[in-house]
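Task: fold both queries, return tokens.
Query 1:
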Amino acid sequence: MSKTFGAGIYTAYRQNGVLHVRAIGWKPTMQTKVYLDELPFLIFPPQVALFFESEGITSPLEMPFETEKAFPGYPRSAKFVTVVDRNGDHAIHIEERAAAAAPLRIGDPAEPRFVVYRQIGVDRYLIAPADALVLAIYVRVFGPDTYARCQAYVAAHSAPTPVIDLVPGSLHAWIDVMPGGPSRLIVTVDAFIEVDWTVTLVSAEPQGINQLVKLLKLDVRLPQGPVHSHAIALRTLRYEELQPLAYTDVTIENGVLTMSAKVTTAH
């Protein structure tokens, strides 16, 4: 297990006498656990730290995160909280909020205070209170409404993306710099695909923070109607990009799975 300081952007508020610290940012892999915790040092007032924790096999796909934790024992007289991460110490001003009313029952039809957000370029949805801070990669698509109706919207608009059976070890990526034409990034991968499906290797949107890792995804178009052959064929999928950046790696997003390879150069 690997545990290190993370990095993020922080806000803090005090409500009903309890300190809440919130962190947003990007984590290095999909599997990385992100959490805030009080440091065990004899410092007054106490300090809080952001941790990244990884265990087992991880995929090199950066993902957004947001996490919040309450610290009931934090001194009520403190106006700032120190958050420690890999970039050093950050003095975060504590916003004083009015006392909260009794918690609402999620799904109460009389409380239409929830909003559905959709991640830009991805069929990934987030339900949050209408006054919540949300990463800029999400846009509002429904609400405010009740939690139950927001859930119904997500269910109606979410179509599970089929996971394609990519052949292990078949992903190859290179930049062709042969004389006589512009440079090209070329990516190929073998996959077992139903013959009636149309599957294309395309650029993923949005790309990750690391601009030298090219993210691709599988655009899967299923046949119309309930009847199709179910026959499987081995295909080679290909992606090309003219005048690419000096990519070091290529990663294919395949549902919750990923496949990565180093980029070589062909002279």
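Query 1 returned. Query 2:
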Amino acid sequence: MVALFLLVASTHFAALLSPGPDFFLLIRTALGEGRRQADGCAAGIALANLSSMLLVLLLLGVLPAQGGLFWRVLQALGGAYFIWIGWQALLAGRDLQLPAGEQRQDGRWWRGLRQGLLASSCNPKLPLFYAGLFSVLRDAAMPGWGLALAMLWMTLVVWGWDLALVRLLGRQRWRAWLQRQVRWLDRVCGALLLAMGLWLVLGSAL
């Protein structure tokens, strides 16, 4: 059970490391509106992730036990999505261009909170992502307290990583490192997501 939790947690964190829409939203907010508003944006993104996880757990709670048709369809959809984003990450040969400039110090925290919450909540891929992760845990008969712990952990990881990202954006050395290593990060993220996706798809077919 612990090993499975670590696998899901590492896959989740790898997805955070690969720059995506939330990453660039934080960059624009930090450099355009200031660290305070970017911190609010990070909180909004974390709340949107928490809301998506609650929605997924509610859906899993009303679905029949594993082995039912809807359960298998959900697993297959989540696995297919993981395979797709994993394959895209493996094929990505992008160069990350970060805008130059120093972080401003003004901006409003509440405006950033609303900005991050709306942007992430409107991403239809977020519930599908968590459906894949939590279906793995439920398939292994993870108890309710374990699912709650996983939800809390992933919410705090999203929030903590985004707060750290906002602060690291002000360091030129870190920006240069990220620009050099973005392809490697894509490969790691892609491999983990592809493996998780194949696991889900194969599990839904058994």
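Both queries returned. Flag for query 2: The CA atoms of residues 40 and 113 lie 4 Å apart.
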